């Protein structure tokens, strides 16, 4: 038996069968224009304080917590800082779900880390649909959730951009009180801030909102997120989280990003990106190379290509976007909203596809 085989025999069944989450960066593509990971095109150059790195950091840096609580209109005790929103997902599953016993409910297609985290901890998946979430009644949704311990609602949803209304989230949370925790993942909420569920946290003890600095705050490389909930719900999570989850350098950069001036700057950038998104959607809707464009929120647009070979043509041009299999079809594409120069590369690609399509149609006629 090889050494690798010996290691494999030591793995729990759920880990041995696990398929790792395929992130945009794990695909190892090459290019010059990167619109595949929903990153902000704006970069930050913060002043970093490197003093006292010989000391352990504050487990929950007070300045960051206070500033984020102010930003989210919450109290500091309702805010937990994590290593990205992904750690928030993992902490919720570890804290509230019993392995080989409990399940979590998802509305597919949605963000893949919910399933990967559940699989890692041997938690079952109650796979529901986005159609049920968006079009079903609250009673139908609650019935389908059944005895799932956590209910994940990605809002806006990645990769479709669809939104679940605040009123519907309120009613679902109300009906699941004492039965399940509703987790609203708001990674993209800065692009539609009026629809945040954070305003409901003071109403419900079974509601969690996940946030991140990776998208609108342009700090994807920092890996900083926040878990927002009532202090009673956060109390057991504080028992589970690592003793020093946030480095002093990360805390310093995050605090700077959450200053009033930088929040105002972020909001100006969001306005620009939303405007550029509208322009991109117009181009896509007019392109003969695109069959369908999903309308929704967030700093991305998801579309169905007429010919999936169009994606490879984009790669040849150095344009990297995110190919998806959605609804059982592998000809879907998600385009992150970049700056004007980056989106101009998308326009060049689309124009080239249109020219090719027109030439083919003329030859066939």
Protein topology:
Elements: H1 3-10, H2 13-16, E1 33-35, H3 62-72, E2 79-82, H4 84-96, E3 103-108, H5 113-120, E4 124-129, H6 130-135, H7 138-145, E5 150-154, H8 166-175, E6 181-185, E7 207-212, E8 225-228, H9 231-240, H10 248-257, H11 260-286, E9 290-293, E10 300-305, H12 309-316, E11 319-326, E12 329-336, H13 340-364
Parallel strand pairs: 1-11, 3-4, 3-5, 5-6, 6-7
Antiparallel strand pairs: 2-8, 7-8, 9-10, 10-12, 11-12
Organism: Pseudoalteromonas gelatinilytica
Catalytic activity: L-histidinol phosphate + 2-oxoglutarate = 3-(imidazol-4-yl)-2-oxopropyl phosphate + L-glutamate
Pathway: Amino-acid biosynthesis; L-histidine biosynthesis; L-histidine from 5-phospho-alpha-D-ribose 1-diphosphate: step 7/9
In words, what does this structure look like?
The model has no long low-confidence stretch (mean pLDDT 93). The strands form 2 sheets. Strands 2-8-7-6-5-3-4 form a 7-stranded mixed sheet, sandwiched between helices. Strands 1-11-12-10-9 form a 5-stranded mixed sheet, with helices on both faces. The chain has helices at residues 3-10, 13-16, 62-72, 84-96, 113-120, 130-135, 138-145, 166-175, 231-240, 248-257, 260-286, 309-316, 340-364; strands at residues 33-35, 79-82, 103-108, 124-129, 150-154, 181-185, 207-212, 225-228, 290-293, 300-305, 319-326, 329-336. It is globular. Helix 3 (62-72) runs parallel beside helix 10. It is of the alpha/beta class. 41% of the residues lie in helices and 18% in strands. The protein is built from 13 helices and 12 strands. Its cofactor is pyridoxal 5'-phosphate. Pathway: Amino-acid biosynthesis; L-histidine biosynthesis; L-histidine from 5-phospho-alpha-D-ribose 1-diphosphate: step 7/9. It catalyses: L-histidinol phosphate + 2-oxoglutarate = 3-(imidazol-4-yl)-2-oxopropyl phosphate + L-glutamate. It comes from Pseudoalteromonas gelatinilytica. InterPro entries: Aminotrans_II_pyridoxalP_BS, Aminotransferase_I/II_large, HisP_aminotrans, PyrdxlP-dep_Trfase, PyrdxlP-dep_Trfase_major, PyrdxlP-dep_Trfase_small.
């Amino acid at each position: 038996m090889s050494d690798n085989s010996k290691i494999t025999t030591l793995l729990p069944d759920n880990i041995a069968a696990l398929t790792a989450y395929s992130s945009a960066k794990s695909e190892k593509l090459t290019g010059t224009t990167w619109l595949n990971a929903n990153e902000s095109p704006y970069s930050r150059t913060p002043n970093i304080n490197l003093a006292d790195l010989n000391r352990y950091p504050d487990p929950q840096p007070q300045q960051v917590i206070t500033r984020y609580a102010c930003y989210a209109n919450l109290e500091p005790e309702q805010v937990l800082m994590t290593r990205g929103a992904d750690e928030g997902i993992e902490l919720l599953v570890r804290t509230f779900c019993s392995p080989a016993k409990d399940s979590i409910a998802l509305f597919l297609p949605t963000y893949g880390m919910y399933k990967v985290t559940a699989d890692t901890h041997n938690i079952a998946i109650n796979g529901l649909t986005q159609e049920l979430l968006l079009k079903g009644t609250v009673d139908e949704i609650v019935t389908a959730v059944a005895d799932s311990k956590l209910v994940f609602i990605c809002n806006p949803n990645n990769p479709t951009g669809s939104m679940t209304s605040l009123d519907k989230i309120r009613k679902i949370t109300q009906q699941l009180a004492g039965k399940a925790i509703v987790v609203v993942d708001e990674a993209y909420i800065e692009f539609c801030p009026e629809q945040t569920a954070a305003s409901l946290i003071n109403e419900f003890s079974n509601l969690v909102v996940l946030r991140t600095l990776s998208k609108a705050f342009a700090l994807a490389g920092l890996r900083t997120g926040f878990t927002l909930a009532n202090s009673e719900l956060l109390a057991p999570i504080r028992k589970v989280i690592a003793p020093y989850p946030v480095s002093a350098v990360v805390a310093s950069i995050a605090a700077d990003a959450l200053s009033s001036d930088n929040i105002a700057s972020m909001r100006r950038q969001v306005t620009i990106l939303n405007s550029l998104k509208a322009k991109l959607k117009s181009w896509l809707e007019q392109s003969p190379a695109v069959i369908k464009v999903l309308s929704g929120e967030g700093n991305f647009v998801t579309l169905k290509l007429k010919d999936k070979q169009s994606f490879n043509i984009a790669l040849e041009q150095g344009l990297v976007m995110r190919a998806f299999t959605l609804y059982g079809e592998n000809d879907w594409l998600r385009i992150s909203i970049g700056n004007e120069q980056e989106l101009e590369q998308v326009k060049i690609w689309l124009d080239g596809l249109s020219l090719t399509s027109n030439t083919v149609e003329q030859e066939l006629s």
